[in-house]
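Re: your question from the hallway

Yes, I did run it. Sequences:
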Amino acid sequence: MTAYQGSPSARQLSFWKPLLVWQRAYVAAILAVILLVVNIELNHWTFSSIQAVGIANESLPLALAAIGETFVVLTNGIDLSTGSIVTLANVTTAVLAGHGLAPLGVLVALGLGAAAGLLNGLIVCYAQIAPLIATLATGSIYVGVALVILPYPGGATIPAWLTSWTVGTISVIPVSAIWLTLAALAGWFFLRRSKFGVDLQAIGGSEASSWSAGIRVVRVRILAYVASGVCCALAGVVLAGLTTSGDPTIGAVYLLNAVAALVVGGTSLSGGVGTLVGSLLGAIVLSLVASVLFAANFSTNLQFIVTGVIVIGALLAQSAQSKRSARTSQRRQRSSNTLGEQPASL
Amino acid sequence: MSGQRRSYTRPIELGIPYGLVVLAAVGGAIAIPGFLSPGHLSVMAQTAAYIGIIAIGQTLVLLVGGIDLSVPYIINLSAVLLVGFQASGLSPGTDFLLVLVVGLGAGIVNGLGISLLEVSPLVMTLGMNSILEGVAIIYSHGSPQGNAPGFVTTLSTGSAGIPYVVVLWIVLIAIVTVVLVFTRLGRNIYGIGSNRAASELCGLPVKRTIIVAYAVSGLSCALGGVLLAGYSGQAYIGMGDNYLLPSVAIVVIGGTSLAGGKGSYLQTVAGAALITVIQSALVTINMNQAGQDVLYGTAILLMAFLNQFALGRNTERPKMWSWGRGALRGWLQPVGRGPGVAVPATEQKEA
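Structure:
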């Protein structure tokens, strides 16, 4: 950031710009690396050891839910039906797999996730109910539907291919780690290289300006909720593979944890600023916390406290950072205006 | 206490939720024999009292434009501490007061983080919830032992014609309403909720008021936790989980705006009554959990929609009562701003 004080030349900008875009994800990245190193030290892990696979497996559904939540938060909304859609997809996959229709189950689960997201988006955009309340209410409805599909937790016959495709290993590499990498790449592409992603961030920044600039605000916002629904449905499908069963209460923890992962990942809750990769790293951090505490012979119950402290701390770091960058950009704008240049924008 | 006092709540804002309560009660009475018998009425009042007391704080917090998601584990920790302190030999009175102080403390910490450190309320209270969950589990080793003090059980379940807890609720309704309408604190809460920047410029104690709102939320949740522990006679981990969504939902169903500055505790009381009557009717006709969840969600959506449009809250849209050409079309216009719509002051600043 120091490079930015004063008036930067265009060359400086073009070098630092791509790195600065990720600045908010750095907190999560550093935390993840620290926790990983501590974990390796304490547990004497090798890459293929069972705990490492466990961490990757545990992070995958949470990362998917957090990525979905990020789409919505970037538009300055919030999706509280995340956990319910995870549950809905999980029980749908399990029940249809129980009838020997696992591929259909996965498709139907993803379809239901998209439909649920579409309903959220339509209610938020057309009925103009605050996203918090709208998704709170639809979340209750989706859990109700999930309870109709599968009233009690039950083991289903999840086919082996689904399990090996979600939580298996290819030689020494856990499949879930591959999925996490793919999700990170896809997230980068969607947000930085697709029109949808750019529009998404623009709407979160200023809805009125985006509208004036010709962005189809309503369509993009609805798509954000649909994307959230599909990601959560994917998380539900992965959970079906992971637990080899369906459980109508499985999603409850994913709501608050997804928001927590997103905050640790540096996404601003007031919209417009954030990265999907950050949310993914945030999910990994949250999954690592419990493992580190266990390895260090602390009570795993401490994880709730540590998680809470990390979430609040991450947000404090974030607000300090945004205050500082606001000051810097003001200064930059002042100095560039006196020079008659265009203000540089990130 | 000048002579001229403008009420913050219009009659229609109270009329709609209370009208719906009467409607639901009459509907229940027609469908289910004995629905409005004194016995069942007092059971319903008791059920509404617990959630109503818990939602006192949520109402104030939503009025200042925040949200408190630490409700479940303030409730749970209070219940756990209540039985824990009792088991470790503290006198019931000290025990009770100490638990309330802990709840108040958690609320104050929330308020400090939100107002002084400017952490988003959503995350601050979410993080606090996680921290308190850890404290509750570690303190009780996962399975709280012991029982609630006798006088708490009496307060929570006893009755002298009217259940004691309902009497307590009525007293609290009176206090909260008087504070909101007739005191400087109340006016500050409405002022800050409707326009925080203007309140700051007017010299209102914005930060202090926000802290007070969250502190009251901590206190009311602690009281709710104590009453719930008294009701079941013991405490268990997870007992507060079912109170987070209802605590927000009944405030919104009553018509208090999530954006802050509009609403009142009397509306929350109506929301609590409405949800209790509907749920009680559903349980009586043996509707299963799935159906209840679906109807619960639908009720929240419908009430939010009704409050949004019927009360003309939404200044960008035609009012429901102004039936004219294009009234319906105006409703169904999507949220993206059309031409000729004024840009709100907050966004003008950014642009």
